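Q: What structure does this chain adopt?
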Amino acid sequence: MNSNSYLIPANSKKSMLILGFFNPTDLIIFGTGCVITFLLLFILDTNNLKQAFLIITPALISAFLVLPVPNHHNIRTFIGNVYHYFTGRRSYYWRGWCIGRGEK
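A:
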């Protein structure tokens, strides 16, 4: 093997994440959802299953947003990528190997 070549491990970006999955924004979103849920649990009296589900909804939504998915960081970044794809520029200018710069 050549001494000037090296391999970068596939998970080299995971070392920049907290616990290998979360960035600070993800933890803030998840923490806020959990705090809101705990406050609602202490403040409101739950009498039936429907009220209990509505109370834990903030934690469920925040957990869903920071859930890791393949080929993306998490659901939140996937939704952002889909939004930018559909609202971004739609005209693509092709310039291949056979067209020089400034020529027509």
